[in-house]
Amino acid sequence: MTSSVNATFVPRRVWPFAGAALFGVLLALVPGAHTDALELGIGIGLTVSVLAAAVAAPWRSLPTWSPAVPAFAYLLAVALLRDATGGAATGFGPLMLLPTFWLALYGTRGQLLALLAGVATVYYAPLLLIGGPAYPVVGWRGGALFVVVAAIIGLSTHELIRRLRDLLAERAELLARFERLAKTDALTGLPNRRAWEDALGAAFVAALRSDRAVSVAVIDLDHFKALNDRHGHPYGDRVLTACAAAWNAELRPGDLLARLGGEEFGLLLDCPLEEACAVIARLRAATPHGQTCSAGVTEWDHAEAADDLLARTDRLLYQAKEQGRDQAVAAEPSRAPRARTANSAE
């Protein structure tokens, strides 16, 4: 499972945290009455290492627990800076809000709760273990208030971020659903003309890359207007739906059947013309309700514009209708059309 930083993290989002942390380092370098140089050096080195790792880490490929590493490491760095410069009165405590915010934005709730426990430990462990002027017992009040405020801020921010991510995910899902609906024919459930045009362009690009053949067909139900006039539009809709389902069942993986409008359908095939004609023959044979259809079938020449290819296919469809319907007419690029009647197409 990958980190929640994966989808949203951009290195520049580290810079506000880095700026505050480096400002803390500068304050720590100001000479004071009680400074432990070794501990200070370790704290500064750890801070710089944490910031470098946060900027350079490949967050998109790291697991869920990864945002917690710089947070806890920096919490240790703050504890060292605090102790090296004199203890509780040095004012470095607010720097512990930085890892709190980090995990509120990019970590899990469990990681945030663990860090808050770490913040409490940084405040109270020195009071219990060291004490003295550097960590007076009266500091427990300030520590308690800081931990409570840090918890409220961190948990509230984490909840707001969670809700925002949920809303963004819901929005993305709705947009994807609307996109699918915008490319789906409401009656038949097939891709519509918009989806057909997008798929045609993508097929052309893929065919150019792989030097594969692409064929298209335009299929039209014969005498459909008369059928509607005789039986009514609801019956005509049932015929369209039945034809779409029957034809889809005959297609191969990768073939695309779309409803272009009315009783006209488009078929996109990743194959040469001869194979495309065999597919059309299966579709014509599977047409239900005793309905017949006519088709024009062409193969793309790897140069022709989509509009020109469809116009040429439409002309072949009209030729099939003029020749008596219930047949397919196919033509390769730059060749005269050859009729494929109902018998020869099978």
Structure commentary:
This protein is of the alpha+beta class and 346 residues long. It has 2 domains: 11-178, no CATH class; 193-345, Alpha-Beta Plaits. It has helices at 15-29, 37-56, 68-84, 97-106, 109-129, 139-182, 193-210, 224-231, 233-250, 273-286, 306-322, 342-345, and strands spanning 215-221, 256-261, 264-269, 293-299, 328-331, 338-340. It has a 6-stranded mixed β-sheet. A hairpin with a 2-residue loop joins strand 2 and strand 3 (264-269). Helix 2 packs antiparallel against helix 3 (68-84), helix 8 crosses helix 9 (233-250) and helix 9 (233-250) packs across helix 10. The longest helix has 44 residues, at 139-182.
Q: What's this entry about, in short?
A:
The chain is α+β, with helices and mostly antiparallel strands. It is 60% helix and 10% strand.
